[in-house]
Amino acid sequence: MAKKDIDNNDSTVSISQAELDGTFDGEKADKAADKKIVKKPSATKEILPADQALPVKLLLIPLQGRPIFPGIFTPLMISSSDDTKVIEEVCAGDGYIGIVMLKNETENPSVSDLHAVGTIARIIKKINLPDGGLNVFISTLKRFRIRKALHATTPMAAAVDYLDDEEDDTFEVKALTRALLSEMKEVSENNPLFSEEMRLNMVNIDHPGKIADFIASILNIDKADQQKVLETVNVRQRMEQVLIYIKKEQELLRVQKKIQNELNERVEKNQREYFLREELKSIQEELGTDAEGNATDYQKFKKKAEEFHFEGEIKETVDNELEKFNLMDPNSAEYIGTRNFLELVTQLPWNDKPAENYSLDEAKKILERDHFGLDDVKKRIMEFLSVRKLKQDAKGSILLLVGPPGVGKTSIGHSVADAMHKPFYRFSVGGLRDEAEIKGHRRTYIGALPGKIIQGLRTTKTRAPVFMIDEIDKMGQSYQGDPASALLEVLDPEQNVGFRDNYLDLPFDISDIFFILTANTLDSIPEPLLDRAEVIQLPGYIDQEKIEIAKRYLIPKNLNKNGLEKNQVQYTKEALLMIAEEYAREAGVRNYEKSVDKIHRKIVTELMNEAEKKAEEAAAKAKKAKEAELAAKKAQGEHVLTQSEIDKLVKANRDLTQSEIDSLVDSRWKLSQGDIDLLVKKNKNLTQAEIDKLVSVKRESEKVSAADFVDRTKKYTIDAKALDKYLGKPVFDESEIKKADIAGTAIGLAWTSMGGDTLLIESIAYPSAKGGLQLTGQMGDVMKESAQIAINWVKEQVLSKKIKSEEWFEKNIIHLHIPEGAVKKDGPSAGITMATAFMSLLTGKIIKGHLAMTGELSLTGQVLPIGGLREKTVAARRNGIKTILIPKANVRDLSDIPDHVKAGITFIPVTRAEEVMLHAFAGNGKTASLSETKSVKKSAVKKNAQAERAVKSGTLKAAEKKSMQKKSSRNADGGKSSAAKKDTSRREKSVSKKIGVKSSASKKGAAKAKKPAVKKGAGKSRKGK
After folding, report:
1. Which residues belong to any copy of the Lon N-terminal domain (predicted)?
2. Which of 257, 500, 502, 722 would be 440's cystine partner, CB 3.0–4.6 Å?
């Protein structure tokens, strides 16, 4: 460290490096002070010995705590680095330092921030601490007053005047001395803080002023009062002040002793900690003070509760909990539980009820903006919102959105919340087995929490948010309760006005919440729960809708996600359709989005691989240029620093500023001669050779970033060929097209939570000693019953027509199988399909090509309505079906199917199984007319008679054109007929001859067949999820 001199008038204190490095010793410091301090006439009144002459200019240390009085030996902790340097300099000199208390605490104090009066002290011993601080032991000597600041900031120095005690009448001072000693002895006897050693030291002090100083230093009084005592130089006045403080201490001790005696009578030993806190509280009440102010938890909770203006049961419960909380021990387990309860109560929106002030026009625009298609869903939501706004009453607002995964149920909830300008809260009950998740736990349990409903209100901070409860069809039951039953109270408008959460245990009105429930299917939802909601079905997306969703939402969103430019990747219509048909054949668009994401990731990988190669080439080129530049400079006699030499130079120079370091390593900067001179002056460790190298400082080229070389102008076109490259082989190819081209088979239509699908029914018969019906293919109970009904109806028909005998049924087993045996199947809608398969098996006839059917069969032969006709139609179209037999009761559902989906498909409504057989086995590809269908009478007897004639007629017709059917069957197998080509070459029409069933269909015919599928593909906007 550089030397620093402090001028004390004519005397000089010199601090050397050797003294700083050594251990400070008080005796050596005294001798050093005798040599280095030249005495001058003191400003003080008394004449001091030569070895106690005090400097009139001092380095100052600011104190943030209490002031230190003269005549005391005490330790002093120094943590500030600036103060540490001051102590080091003082220790290297005469050892005298000025201790002055700060007026107000500040980070960078100056002399003006100090009190005028302080204490001079001599440092007796210094101990270095591991954290860089110091622990010094000082002996305080005398008061001083700051006369003039010599250095206002750290290190602070000032010229001082020493203050002598002013003594008045000796008799009065003696009386005050005796009073002080008497009071202090009494205090020390009642207060264990004053030890015997303190009392002995106090008695041994021989000067009245020092007695007052000592007592003031150990009394528990405010630091401002202590500073006032320090600034009082008149001994009598000082003693009077201290005597007043002792009297206050005595009074406080008396009150404390009184309270202690009262509490000791009723407090047990195991309540010691509780007693101490009660004692502190009682002391504060007696003195009229509150150490913690008004910011206690109790006052905060009480103030908040008063703002809610609780009434009745709620007010009584909250007041009782507040009083109990006020008297509790904070360390008790019950304290935390009560505090959590009061915190919950004061955070719930008891009084907040916003009006229904949303705009219906804006709500409609938001729904149109965020969702494509789903016109019926949007219409019903708008009707729902219109009623809410008209009534200004949110009670009973419960929507149930039912649809396959990925169709946008959750996103609709978000859009509704945005349209209504209300906060949105979502939680899932899928797999939930504990009703406490809905209604909360009892507070008696450790770790109890409120239920999801109360938690959501606490989060949204309003009584009328939009709540979405996801996956209500997947709730379970256990010994812990039934969550579905718990939801009944939540969703019932008559009960939720006074909903009671188990944790809160207070009535809370949740009728203003707008509940939106979601489910994939209605089958597993309890009827009472279903009865409380307005059901809105969300059908799966057809291919054209998926294409529009991809173009408007999925592709732009995913391009941004993967860091690609908006117009960098273009998709052809054929590619978008292929993704929907061959890679994402589901009701929703999640797999579609995954496919798009996969394409973009692979494109980014290609771009980055190219960029890495360019970056390596650029780095090699830059390195070569740099080497050539260095060689040229060396040839001219210049030396250019390498990066390692620059690093070594910077490391060697500890005093460089950041800007100087930057100038060294910046390749665009060349140091001027002035910079070099400054660097050399500051850096004492540089050799001459290193100084010479500073004439020309350059930095080696940094390794370039590959991201800088990405070609963002490169365009990608995703077509059918590119899909094979990026997505691999199709997940669903042409082999998925199901055909009923042999006797005993039929095509049915199925509907699941994942969308529609085609169902191939297969049946065979084989001899057996015991007849019967064998069913395989993971059928559920309902489907097994349908199969039994179908075989019984067909058996009755073939026996009455003598096609088969009773003996044949006794000696043969009929085996019905539904392929994809690993997939579970259930439901009654395959009834007529199984009956048709049985009839085809027993008669040996093949059903008409490109025919599918759906409908429930009754034991008397009636065809009953089914669900999911829209999704089934989409699946039928995908499978090349041209004719669909549907229950007559489902004709009303045809209006829900888009025209471009129905285009090219003939829907035949049927009411009886006999009609199904007529159309299924109609020869030459012709179908029975509706007039034939209507000719079936309502009477059961007449229906059976007509059915018998219809079967006979159909049999004769089939027999007459048997050769034609065989030819048609061969055409279907070989893929040679033009009809088969049109029905099964959808991929060829959309993409190329490579995809789909190979045929020689003309381009004109393919275009003509394609037209209806895309005629009305556009629609309103919708998000992908």
Report:
1. 58-250
2. 502
Burial of 42 (0-12, 13-18, 19+ CB in 10 A): middle
What CATH number has the domain spanning 542-640+698-732+988-1025? 1.10.8.60
Give me the pLDDT at residue 250, please. 80
Contact 650, 661 (CB under 8 A): yes
Residue 829 annotated in active site: yes
Q: Given the DSSP bridges, would you call strands 534-537 and 398-402 parallel, antiparallel or unpaired?
A: parallel
Binding residues for ATP, by number, are 403-410
Residue ranges of the binding site: 403-410
For the chain, which ranges sit under pLDDT 70?
1-52, 190-206, 265-277, 280-281, 284-295, 393-396, 478-480, 634, 637-704, 733-737, 753-754, 923-1025
CB 79 within 8 Å of CB 222: no
Q: Can you give the pLDDT at residue 688?
A: 54
Q: What is the pLDDT of residue 574?
A: 92
DSSP 304-340: HHHHHT--HHHHHHHHHHHHHHHTS-TTSHHHHHHHH
Contacts of 729 (CB under 8 A, 6+ apart): none
The secondary structure element, H or E, covering residue 535 is: strand 534-537
Q: Per-residue pLDDT tens for 327-373? A: 777 777 788 888 899 999 998 998 877 777 788 888 888 988 888 87
Give the pLDDT confidence score for residue 92 in this predicted structure: 87
Q: Quick one: which H or E segment has residue 536? A: strand 534-537
* Domain at 737-977, CATH from 3.30.230.10, 3.40.50.2000, 2.60.40.10, 3.10.129.10: 3.30.230.10
State the pairing for strand pair 57-63/96-101.
parallel
What H or E segment, with its residue span, contains residue 718? strand 716-718
**Residue with token string 């959309």:** 990
| CB neighbours of residue 396 within 10 Å | 16
Integer angstrom CA distances of residue 34 from 27, 39, 50, 314: 11, 9, 8, 81
Q: C-alpha dihedral over 938, 941, 946, 950, to 10 degrees?
A: 110
Peptide bond into 109 cis (omega under 30): no
The answer to whether 815 touches 765, Cβ cutoff 8 Å, is: yes
CATH superfamily assigned to domain 360-537: P-loop containing nucleotide triphosphate hydrolases (3.40.50.300)
Relative to beta strand 157-163, strand 57-63 is antiparallel
d(CA 124, CA 69): 16
| DSSP element (H, E) containing 550 | none
Four-residue CA torsion sign, 222, 228, 233, 235? negative
**Hey, where are the domains in the chain?**
4-163, 170-262, 297-347, 360-537, 542-640+698-732+988-1025, 737-977
Residue with token string 């899928």: 430
Q: Is 872 a catalytic residue?
A: yes
**Contact, 885 vs 847, CB < 8 A?**
no
Grouping H, G, I as helix, E, B as strand and the rest as coil, residue 909 is strand
Task: Select from 19, 42, 25 the least CA-distant residue to 122.
Answer: 25
Active-site residue, from 415, 829, 990, 999: 829
Report the 10 Å Cβ neighbour count for 470.
19
What's the confidence (pLDDT) of residue 977?
Answer: 36
Nearest to 345 by CA among 310, 374, 385: 310
> Active site residue: 452, 693, 872, 1025, which one?
872
> Which CATH number applies to 4-163?
2.30.130.40
Which fold would CATH assign to domain 170-262?
Methane Monooxygenase Hydroxylase; Chain G, domain 1 (1.20.58)
